Amino acid sequence: TEIDWKAYMQEVEGFANGTLDYTQLKGDTGPLVYPAGFVYIFLGLYYATGRGTDIRLAQYLFAGLYLLNLLLVFRIYCRTNKVPPYVFFFMCCASYRIHSIFVLRLFNDPVAMAILFLAINLFLEERWSWGCLLFSLAVSVKMNILLFAPGLLFLLLQRFGLLGCIPKLCICALLQVILGLPFLLVNPVGYLTRSFDLGRQFQFKWTVNWRFLPEEVFQNRAFHAALLLTHLAGLGLFALHRWHRSKESILALLKDPAERKHPSPPLTVNNILWEGGQQGIVFVLFSSNFLGVCCSRSLHYQFYVWYFHTLPYLLWCTPTAKLAHMPKVLLLGVIELCWNTYPSTVCSSLSLHICHGLGLLQLWYGTAPPPALHTPPPSRRPAAISKKAQ
């Protein structure tokens, strides 16, 4: 269980010894492929655990991170008030894989996600500048946080317009420059290509979601391009028809909010849920990430934490009849079973895709805007009768 931890410690040890060329930072599992925020955080853990030798202490620290992560997630769910309380039992106690990712394997994914959930809490408090700072810090630990970026960009445009969101984006960019500056000054190309390598190939033996494909298809660049186009199409559809609820064109998001027209849609469950409220923030961010996970080129076992804590909200954010709770619980159970099947099989990876597809379908149809109510024009006949009556 300590393979990745030792590799992390070897990677940051090079930095501790003065190596600033990112291409020279390596571990037993290969070269360092995470941005600079990872290096600083795990360098702190490196010194706190006696140069990485006190693994038991590291596990205690990650257990504390796990509890903090749950606290941040619960705070988000309390603000949205959509998920029935019994579902939190499954979130806390029923996932062996999540406990393993946090406390046994000591991956960097939980660190990035905990910072991300802290950023979302700040967004819910309308502290957008601080939230963007924390969001960028999470990206600097692991790039999977970028799956939330399309949703965040939409929210920034929705609240501030094009000119208003530029300072927030500058906060995100500036932090990346500051964190990466020691490495950028020595070997900028090496740092950027290693820490933000979007074209990195994944090993077929570790894939959880594409086991049913032949390996040559899994590694094919055309397949990767098709997944990217599917992802972009999904984001476009959700942005146009599910995230954007105003009757104005989506291009109106580029205007200053004070200059926009604000039509008053009827107060239905959907409009109360999405239009500008705190649940709109959570829905946009969580669904943006979920679309990215569904279209991922490969999911490894530690990637489960990317969306595990968002699944209850995504399944229960839509109106649910009393008898419809059980299929959603069943869906959570099947997803958990798929992630606990090691090594992955054709059946487990196909089942995972089916569950993801059902989740997307219920998100799409469950959040559809209500049909417009057309008032029939007044009949002329009664008017003629009333004239005769006069």
From TrEMBL:
Family annotation (Pfam families): ALG3
This protein's record includes keyword Kinase: no
E.C. number: 2.4.1.258
Membrane-crossing residue ranges in chain numbering: 32-48, 60-77, 106-124, 130-157, 169-186, 222-240
UniProt membrane topology term: Multi-pass membrane protein
Enzyme class of the recorded protein, top EC level: transferase
Record's keyword annotation contains Membrane: yes
Functional pathway: Protein modification; protein glycosylation
Keywords: Endoplasmic reticulum, Glycosyltransferase, Membrane, Transferase, Transmembrane, Transmembrane helix
InterPro entries the record matches: Glycosyltransferase_ALG3 (IPR007873)
Localization annotation: Endoplasmic reticulum membrane
Reaction(s) this enzyme catalyzes, per UniProt: an alpha-D-Man-(1->2)-alpha-D-Man-(1->2)-alpha-D-Man-(1->3)-[alpha-D-Man-(1->6)]-beta-D-Man-(1->4)-beta-D-GlcNAc-(1->4)-alpha-D-GlcNAc-diphospho-di-trans,poly-cis-dolichol + a di-trans,poly-cis-dolichyl beta-D-mannosyl phosphate = an alpha-D-Man-(1->2)-alpha-D-Man-(1->2)-alpha-D-Man-(1->3)-[alpha-D-Man-(1->3)-alpha-D-Man-(1->6)]-beta-D-Man-(1->4)-beta-D-GlcNAc-(1->4)-alpha-D-GlcNAc-diphospho-di-trans,poly-cis-dolichol + a di-trans,poly-cis-dolichyl phosphate + H(+)
GO molecular function list: dol-P-Man:Man(5)GlcNAc(2)-PP-Dol alpha-1,3-mannosyltransferase activity
GO cellular component: endoplasmic reticulum membrane
PANTHER family attached to this UniProt entry: DOL-P-MAN:MAN(5)GLCNAC(2)-PP-DOL ALPHA-1,3-MANNOSYLTRANSFERASE, NOT56 - RELATED
Cited function: Dol-P-Man:Man(5)GlcNAc(2)-PP-Dol alpha-1,3-mannosyltransferase that operates in the biosynthetic pathway of dolichol-linked oligosaccharides, the glycan precursors employed in protein asparagine (N)-glycosylation. The assembly of dolichol-linked oligosaccharides begins on the cytosolic side of the endoplasmic reticulum membrane and finishes in its lumen. The sequential addition of sugars to dolichol pyrophosphate produces dolichol-linked oligosaccharides containing fourteen sugars, including two GlcNAcs, nine mannoses and three glucoses.
Name of the featured protein: Dol-P-Man:Man(5)GlcNAc(2)-PP-Dol alpha-1,3-mannosyltransferase
Organism for this UniProt entry: Alca torda
